[in-house]
Amino acid sequence: MAELLEPDDGPESAETQGPVSSAAALAMGVKKGRAGARPDPEFDAFLRKQSRLVDLQTEHLHEQRQVILSRLILGRWKDRVGLTLQLMTAVVGLAIALAVGVMAWQAHEDHGVAIEAFSVPPDFIQRGLTGQVVANRLLDRLADLQASTVTARPASSYANDWGGDIKVEIPDTGVSIGELNRYLRQWLGSETRISGEIVRTAAGVAVTARAGETPGQRFEGSEADVDKLIGQAAEAVYRETQPYRYAVYLASHGQLPEASAAFADLARSGAAEDRPWAYAGWASILQQQGHHYDAIRMARASISLNPMLVPAYETLGVSSDVVGHWPAVLDNPGQELAVVQSGRAIGFAKAQLAERIRFLRAVKAFYFADFQSTATLLGAMGAFNVEGRLEGYAPQHLRARALASLHEVTVAEQLETGPADTNSYQAISARGLTLGDWTGVVQRLQAHRNDPALEGDAQKTVVLPLLAQAYAHLGRLQQAEALVAGTPTDCYQCLTARGDIATLEHDWPTADRWFAELDRQTPSRSLAPAAWAASLLARGDLQGAINQAKDALRRSPCYADPLELWGEALMRMGDFQGAAAKFADASRNAPRWGRNHLLWGEALMLSGRYGEARAQYEAAAGMDLSKPDRAALDLLLARTASGPLHG
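Predicted structure:
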């Protein structure tokens, strides 16, 4: 079988197979060469031709390889260049899209003012008063109004705020970036566009300015007054576009009735963002006008709309103190302090944050009769800016009142400069309690009675009760009764005055009734029990006085007056050691109280501690004392000049 399958090498077989391919011929030649077949010239020539062909093909392929490699390198370079161009095109396209997007966003957020060139008469243009010049003058006046409006209100809290972005618009020609930007602002933004014209009238000229689509306001006058008319037009635009800032501008320039009306309109019908601020501003104006009860209502309305608004708390606290509403007076500094410390408070200068916190702590300390802490915390603190006021709030008046409450009257009076406020009036009244100079108190109170801060409601809640107290101490009881009768009975200063007058009249049941009512209205303050203790001591009820003094100290542990009254009661009981201890405690809370040192010396002397008594007398000699106390001190100093007791 295998032999039948083997090909026949004879010539007959080759002829019958037809043409032979080059590859087959080569294979046959190799096979014959290996088998040792006889030479075949034709076949050998064929093989030589095939070898030559292979050489030519090899040479051609080598040359072709260089060309192919060059083409591949060139193709790769072209691909890279093409890719780079595509990337650059994409980047440029993306940049253009991003730029347009940024412009669109800026246009959407644009709340500025663009003032178009005014239309003016031809002869104005010839004189150089072109529409562009008029627009620039309007811009200057708007910028002046903006700069003279001092407000701590954040720009983001306005319903329509254009802040300091005021510009005159200069039209471009053709298609440009400026034109595209202007188109986007008009399409997407909230930009306020101001336009207007100047026209001639029979009387001179008329200037009209309009903001957006609102009807323009026309101001007429002589041609010589054109700048004044442009200023009036600018103010009208400011009032129309920035109603809150305009009201603050009026208030800070002393135009209180106009400011009050502007705030009232905005509070009642303004945008939601503006209303709490408007109520706070309205409250501040009412306070300045002496309408403290109304100021309290508006301040509460502001806080109900925005509990983070510091100016409303400020007004609420001051006015509540003026009218003697103790619960609000006590709660307000703590509430405001919590708001300020929360980090979300608005409406005050952030640079004064630390001082604001210190001030509120001082106020809280004062209302709990820690007068020494109040005086220390306030120190040399400067005035606080108050929204819409020419002058800020001066803490020095409260510091003077605290020092007067510590019986350092002379130092307190040195702090009082400029117009008095209700704190100043309280400090003046303390002169009588420390120095017994009630005639001087009346004179000083009368001298400041017409100060602006004491107008309106303060007359009934501060001026009249303090004057009534002074008159009662001078023995003018009928006049005191007439004055105090005109005061309200929900005012802690008024109730204190009523109780003191009844005590001086020796009308003990009436005194007890007024002090009990005062205690009911001020349950957490030491004012009532301290005053009641003094009344009980005056009538000889020593244990009753001690009980009330203890109650006062429970409410205000740093209050010196109850300790001094307790010491006086113990002295009358003959407990001189106990009295000396109470006077020592009082001295820690009021270290420069002359009368306390005098009584402390007496208690020590009666206890047989003469050297210590002499030290207290010498200390008292450099402090404020009434004339009777000064005379007693001079005698005691003389008696202890050498040895335990002489003279």
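Summary: The mean pLDDT is 84.
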